Amino acid sequence: MNELEIFENCIQHLAEIYSHEDNKDAKETAKFLYSANCQSIKLNEQENSKSLSRIFNSFEVENEHPLVKEVRKISHLLPWYQTDMGGRIDDDLKSQMIMTELVGPHSLLYTEEFELGVFLQLPNVNYPKRRHPAEETFYTLSGKSFWQLEDNEEREKIIGEYVFHPSMAMHANRTTDEHLIACWRWSGDISLENYYKYQ
Ligand SMILES: [Fe+2]
What we know:
- This protein has five helices and twelve strands.
- The chain has helices spanning 3-19, 24-34, 50-58, 66-73, 91-94; strands at residues 80-81, 97-104, 109-110, 114-121, 126-131, 135-143, 145-149, 155-157, 162-165, 171-174, 180-187, 196-197.
- Strands 1, 2, 3, 4, 6, 9 and 11 form a seven-stranded mixed sheet that branches.
- It binds fe (ii) ion.
């Protein structure tokens, strides 16, 4: 199997995951992904994200979702980054999260409608309350994590759970002794202009 076919597998896994979410935007996202044409995508070695790719691959455990296994196979070809969300995330938090955006306005698979990617949060990291216009659903792929929506009680999510955040809903999440790998989808207003941290 060549590298582009592995990338297509990643897109198909994302489509499958979000086709099973009980949500209108998720269904539209899945429809887009199922019909996406990846043939013109150029996968090249990503010199500037090599070290982040290695960190991602170092967090490997048994019973990971097949999407993670596929991402590992081509992780050296994916654009990994750490973001401060346009100055909205502090440097020490920024350094503990690594992500690659596979679909979106600045991604390998272009669309202005959605943003999807894969995300690693290191162990013992508290990602505090924030809210944003985009509707968001994380889907847990590896590790262990705890999530809070608005004033609801914090809940642990096991592998294979959806974590839905409506537009502008306050949400927070943290890891303890294990890492978290999840994929995310954004829909609606996917700009960062109105992303708020810490309430
Ligand atoms: Fe979010």
